[in-house]
Structures are given as C-alpha cells and as structure tokens.
Amino acid sequence: MSGEQPVAGSRAARLLGGESFDLHEAIGGWRGFVESSLPGIVFVAAYLVWGGFRIPVIAAAAVMAVLVLLRLIQRTPVVQAVSGAVGVAIGAVWAWRAGDASGYFVPGLWLNAAYLAGILVSMAVRWPVVGIVVGLIRGEGTHWREDRAERRRYQLASAVLAGMFALRLLVQVPLYLAGAVAALGTAKLAMGLPLFALTLWGVWLLARDAGAARETQDPPPTTR
C-alpha cells in the first residue's frame, strides 16, 4: 500500500507549480482513487470475515493484479496501478513473513516516517523541501531563499506537509502496536488520498502566496 507514495509525490510536484489547484488530479482521478483504495478495502473486509492473514493478503493482491490487468487490456497508463501493485506486494510479503495481518501496513509506516524525517531535516537546515520543489518546477531556482518572508512561507508549507505524515504515524502506530488490524486499515484509507489532497491544497495555497508576495515586493523594472 506504500507504492502509491512516489506517484502521489510526482503528482503533487506538478500541482504545486500550477496556477490553480485541481482536487480531481490531486487524488489521481476517480480511477486512481479506486485503484489506490480498493485493495485496502478488500483487505479489511476479508480480515473481518475470515480473520488471519493469508486470505486478506491473497485477496488484496488478487484485486491489485486485476486492476493492473485491466489497465493493460485497455492500454491505458499503468504507472499508478503498477506503483500500487508494488506497494501491495511489499505489504503482502511483509505480512506473510511475519505471519500477522498487521504486518501488511508496516512498510507504509516506515515510508511515512522516512518522509517525515526528510522534511524535518530540510526545514532544520533552512532548505524547506516545498521551496526546493516549487523553485525547480517554476524555473526560479533558489531565488526564494533571498527573501525572508518567502522563505518563511515555504518553511510553513513544509511544516504542513510534515504534519500530515506525523498525524498518520500518531494515529496508525498505536493501532499497529495494539494489533487493531481493522481499525488500522480503516485509518490508513481515511488518511490516504483524502488527507493527502487536503494537505496538498494547503501547501499549494502557501506556496502560491509566497510567490505572489515576492512579485509584489520586487516588481519588474519599467522601461522608459
């Protein structure tokens, strides 16, 4: 289930550099939303019905395989589906080796922790990741670092993004430690793309305001 993160990251980068925010694109379109959510829904449903870990893992993997196959048959882009399949496969292997259904969610927890750590480090060294990404996409490089107010906005935007990953860990790690598989699966679904899209919108607003503030402070020279 962690395989959706790289694709979501590339999609977020495109949105952050845009003049407007598209919620539909933020969730990967309705098909992308279904592809990222359905394996998890099936996993939780199978666990509630049969318990254990084998049937839920097999069911989730089978659903993901069907989704990828449909993409191939229809000859539509398979990047998001394949990325999701990789995440499901990693979670399935982890759960199978651990012999515990909760192991299915461990790779996602580690990935969220890695993202959180990376963002916090970027903020600590005053190179907030949102500023780096937006600067590259907009072709502005690192000029934003020369303006204190703009740099502060990018720090705040990065803090909002870090808050999303921290919130996921704060909610999901205790559920994992308690072995509450159904609750953990439900929380992961709710805090997946819906929370990501909402967070990205907030980050986009701050990034947009940062650029607008700099343009206001540094108007282009007029010709005589």
UniProtKB/TrEMBL annotation:
InterPro entries per record: UCP010219
Pfam families: DUF3159 (PF11361)
Record-annotated membrane-spanning stretches: 41-70, 77-97, 109-136, 156-177, 189-207
UniProt KW keywords: Membrane, Transmembrane, Transmembrane helix
Residues spanning the signal sequence: none
Protein name: DUF3159 domain-containing protein
Naturally occurring in which organism (per UniProt): Demequina litoralis
